[in-house]
Predict the 3D structure of the following.
Amino acid sequence: MEAYVRTTEKSSNTKKMPSIRISRRVYYNLFSHLYDAFINLHARRDAGDTRNFLVEKAMALLEEKPHPYILDICCGTGAVITAFANQYPKSFTAGYDFSRGMLLKVREKSRGRTVILLEGDAAILPFIDNSFDVITCSHALYELKGPARQAALNEMKRVIRPSGVILIMEHEVPRHRLTKILFNIRMFTMGSADSKEFVKGGPEPFERIFSDVSLLHSASGKSKLFVCRR
């Protein structure tokens, strides 16, 4: 682990988190107790659709790497990172989130598996350059304001290996009327039109940073996946 995490002296991860992010951290610490139940209620029969789609796509791209180094940013309660740990029990597998409450839930789920958990801001990753073969981030970047989102993407580019891949999953705009109303309420609570525009948009924000970007869609139509390479 020490070989892949920057020391305090060398790290830029000493900046203070903005107050708005601190308030959202408190919110997610509390929400962590209800998060899985909320996701199951919202997703219903498609609960595993996005997670399986993301993990299976990553595995297909990692066929020649039996023990890849994996980082899941904004890992939440750990659905994605524990799925990776099951598939790659001998790999270096790390979950990263700014909510301690969420990370505690990951710890409960990952007992018996080797998963490194780290608390911090997605816009300031504590890892050295070229550390990971795959980086994932699921349904989280839309919550960041424009500059913080760009900083997070630049950090992903910095810590991914030249041959590595970054998989970023985001919501599709719902088609069902009631679900769309709830979706718009969620976007409103983000406090910025930027969040909604990001979710509604295409690959342009990623193409400004990465040389190779492709767009895929989950079978349920609820999520889209951006596959990015340096």
In short: Residues 19-229 form a domain with the Rossmann fold fold (CATH 3.40.50.150). The chain is about 40% helix and 20% strand. Strands lie at 70-73, 93-97, 116-119, 132-138, 160-171, 212-217, 223-229. The chain has one domain: 19-229.
